[in-house]
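hey so u asked for the seq, here:
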Amino acid sequence: MFYLRVMLEAYQHIIAQAMTKSAETLKFLDRLRQRKPRDLDQVTNALHDVAFETIDCLQCANCCATTGPLLLDKDIERMAKHFKSKPSVFTEKHLVMDEDGDYVFKSSPCPFLGDDKYCCAYEARPNACREYPHTQQRNMLQKLKITGLNATICPAVAEVVEGLKKHYK
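ran it, structure tokens below
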């Protein structure tokens, strides 16, 4: 139990540092976007792999506790089927349309996040959750803005961003 508490405190420290560096990070990522490095995908993906050697999502779950994914129609259908519900009933019970016209969960933390930090809809989770934190994908140049925002939510992304800063100084 002590080890898990220390790990969680370490994650919170990483996120707190990322928050204090947020403006600096966004400027760096904007400059990086303008530079358009050809190896950005490979470098980011490698840093992602390194970060997740020590970051355990099931000890953190900050993404599920603080942010909500956008749900596409196929996500709603998959989740409704998982909970043996009609998509319209699932939507009415769990979702709301945001100011951009996208479906999001009515509440935060995610209504499917358990006290044990496990997702009770994991197999049917929305695509945005499946792809989070988006640092293991291609076309990272297009994802740098969201990467900057995610660095204040996910300790692994914060570690990836710090690695990018060192690599592209």
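The longest helix spans residues 2-20. The beta strands are 95-97, 103-105.
lmk if thats what u needed
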